Amino acid sequence: MTATEPAASDAIVTDPSPQPAPGATPPRTPLAARAAAELVGTAALVAIVVGSGIQATQLTDDVALQLLANSTATVFGLGVLIALLGPVSGAHFNPVVTLAEWWTARRGGAGVNARELAVYVPSQIAGAIAGAILADAMFGEPLVKWSTHDRSAGNLLLGEVVATAGLILLIFGLARTDRLRFAPVAVASYIGAAYWFTSSTSFANPAVTIGRAFTDTFAGIAPASVPAFIGMQIIGAVVGLALVAVIFLRGKTGAE
Predict the structure, then answer these.
(1) Taking the mean position of all CA atoms in its chain, how far away is CA 236?
(2) Is the CB of residue 116 less than 8 Å from the CB of residue 190?
(3) For residue 66, what are the CA distances in angstroms to 147, 201, 234?
(4) What pLDDT, in 10s, does the model give residues 11-31?
(5) Exposure check for the chain: N or C terminus, fewer CB within 10 A?
(6) Where do the domains of the chain lie?
(7) Which residues have a Cβ under 8 Å from the Cβ of 166 and sit 6 or more positions away?
């Protein structure tokens, strides 16, 4: 869901050239290893989100406490996953992050190429589905039961645009300002906050959205609501990249 920390990358690659951003990975890391990291990382993220949601509903009927437990587990889990897997794959765990990086690479920046994009995104989606099934299995729920949690209201879709735009702005802003070492804390903190300040509870991730459709539990989303959520997430990514371009405008060098 985020970028590789420069310090961690330096431990693997001694090449003095500028570090790729925002989620680009050490060039010597095999693509198979990066795909595995994206699959496992996304699976773990969804297992955390779904599993903590199930646990919360079993412990209390207070919806506020349920959301607090769910968001807290997600914050800590996501931070650990980014710190652990960031040096391997960039810890995207999110197709819109991968797509945004591919787009910036096409325009002359560093990032994933088309081949890597074609490997990352299916790995993320497969991982998300596996994570939802794993969480259901751990809590004795049906392994696959389509969610009945409708999330089609317009205000929720707006929440997804805001949540995703903020996430992209954060990740690529950290990259532009050479602060990717703060990504595990910053990205996890943002997602935790966005659980509360967005009406949609900040899915901000097409793979996670798809995975959560496979579980009819607290964190689920009805399959009919998935396409609109993903559409808004893509729009949010475009808005986020536009904000990065405006806010972190690179100045010209040399005499005007």
Answers:
(1) 13
(2) no
(3) 18, 12, 28
(4) 444 444 444 444 554 556 899
(5) C
(6) 6-10+20-247
(7) 190, 194, 204, 240
